[in-house]
Write a structure and sequence with these properties.
The complex is a heterodimer of chains A (about 325) and B (about 130). By secondary structure, chain A is α+β, with helices and mostly antiparallel strands. Helix content of chain A is about 45%, strand content about 20%. Chain B has a single domain, classed as 2-Layer Sandwich (Heat Shock Protein 90). Chain B is built from four helices and five strands; from the N terminus they run βααββααββ. The relative contact order of chain B is 0.20. At the A-B interface, α3 and α4 of A face α2 and α4 of B. Chain B: This is Anti-sigma regulatory factor. Chain B: It comes from Halobacillus kuroshimensis.
Chain lengths: ~325, ~130
């Protein structure tokens, strides 16, 4: 098949061929012709114009009313042509935005990157996957100078770019805190003041902060309205909710957070997450909390990272590989 | 500026008058069917803006002719409220999102040259040109 150009001759030939043969072949070529015209940004009114001219040449005696009616048709196409051109421009703009966001997402990845700790006493698994390009979840590991491991998990209510900007601020505030002071209640109290001063009142941030002491295996924690985590008792093969009441960050400047402590036994697990895990949906149904725990149990023979990865895979499939919310899951298990 | 002819815009019917006059002038200059239709659509849009947002105003036409090219200039003038943020109305998808027409970006696309001056509280003047090819 020859290459098609939007010229009168070509269109006229195709039209003439179709009028005489009524052949599918000519219609297929008309399809090619229209695709090619779109690539060249040809507006619909121009195609109609070519049609009118072709008719005039094929039928020099064409009745005037046909000519007039074709002009009428052409007139009605002008606005469609404009809408088509606008669509092209908007599409280009969208691509531009997309590439800007992906640059920003990469920057965010670097900014918020955290190194998963490698300690003998504790097996750690962590995974955070954004629903869109930018992540509104945040998790961070901090080693203090007393042999403790600090774990922060946070979630901005909301997704996308605004949530991600907010998270970068949280990360910087945390970096500025002294390494001497790692009490979860103090850290949440300080962050609360930062958020209250700097973030719009319509934006809510929840955070769970825990400190694992490698020397005596205690887990100290406090929560600012964050999704409750779970504690797995190896001896009883049972999960227990880690409930720590506390107000979300930024609501009021003077809030004190209560700190709780738990003795961690060998083989016990601490599960920290964001609501992207517990509120994952299948169709119209939210999954039950038990379902998350059931899946964790199912893979509990694996190392912590293995469990986390498998749980993610399970819910990713359940949601048809399309996350509705940012997904963050952290599992800590005492080894020795 | 010396205009051949102007149409006062006071009621919706005047939009049709402006289209008609613009089309006649375009045809005389030698514009083909497609360009005539585009020019008429641009006139519609300009006249409709006057009718909707300023209440009254006028659309004027001028034949341009120099050594090697011919064209038409259309100037739409009103003493309406003016446009606060011109960048915003020139943005794609701003006025068209409700599906209510081509908006000023559409007028710009339909023509070859586009210029707008607007002062809040004083009025708006939009000049557009289309050249014969």
């Amino acid at each position: 098949m020859s290459t098609l150009k939007l010229d009168l001759e070509n269109y006229k030939e195709l039209l003439q061929e179709y009028i005489t043969t009524k052949d599918e072949q000519a219609l297929y070529q008309a399809e090619q012709f229209s695709k090619h015209s779109m690539q060249q940004n040809i507006s619909p009114e121009e195609i109609i114009n070519v049609h009118i001219q072709s008719l005039q040449e094929i039928y020099p005696d064409m009745p005037e009313y046909i000519q007039t009616s074709m002009n009428f048709l052409l007139e009605t196409m002008i606005s469609y042509g404009l809408a088509y051109q606008e669509y092209q421009t908007l599409r280009e703009k969208q691509l531009e935005l997309k590439s800007e966001i992906s640059v920003a997402a990469n920057m965010q990845k670097t900014l918020l990157s955290t190194v998963k700790p490698d300690i003998d006493e504790l097996d750690v698994g962590a995974l955070s996957v954004p629903a869109k390009q930018m992540n509104g979840d945040y998790h961070h590991f901090v080693h203090d100078n007393k042999g403790g491991l600090g774990i922060a998990v946070a979630d901005v209510i909301g997704k996308g770019v605004p949530a991600a900007l907010c998270m970068s601020m949280i990360k910087y505030s945390m970096d500025s805190f002294s390494e001497m002071q790692t009490d979860p209640s103090v850290i949440l109290g300080s962050l609360n003041r930062v958020v209250e001063r700097n973030v719009d009142a319509s934006m809510f941030i929840t955070m769970f902060y825990g400190l694992y002491n490698n020397n005596n295996h205690t887990f100290t924690y406090a929560s600012a309205g964050h999704e409750p985590g779970f504690y797995y008792h190896k001896d009883k093969d049972e999960f227990e909710e880690i409930d720590a009441p506390g107000l979300v960050l930024g609501v009021s400047p003077e809030i004190t957070y209560t700190q709780y402590e738990k003795q961690v036994e060998k083989g016990d697990m601490i599960v920290l997450l964001t609501d992207g895990v517990t509120e994952c949906r299948t169709g119209d149904r939210f999954i039950e909390q038990e379902e998350v725990l059931h899946v964790i149990k199912q893979y509990s023979h694996l190392p912590a990272q293995g469990i986390v990865d498998q749980v993610y895979k399970h819910f990713e499939r359940l949601q048809d590989f399309h996350l509705r919310d940012d997904f963050t899951l952290i599992i800590l298990r005492r080894n020795v | 500026m010396d205009f051949q002819s102007c149409v006062n815009i006071q009621k919706e019917w005047d939009i049709v008058g402006a289209r008609q006059l613009g089309r006649d002038i375009s045809r005389k200059i030698g514009f083909g069917t497609v360009d005539q239709a585009r020019i008429a659509t641009a006139i519609s849009e300009l006249a409709r803006n006057i009718y909707l947002y300023a209440g009254t105003g006028k659309v004027c036409f001028e034949t341009l002719e120099d050594m090697n090219k011919k064209g038409i200039r259309i100037v739409a003038m009103d003493e309406g409220p003016g446009i606060q943020d011109i960048s915003q109305v020139m943005e794609d998808g701003f006025t068209t999102s409700g599906g209510l027409g081509a908006g000023l970006p559409g007028v710009k696309r339909l023509m070859d040259e586009f210029d707008i001056i607007s002062h809040v509280g004083e009025g708006t003047e939009i000049k557009v040109v289309k050249w014969l090819r």
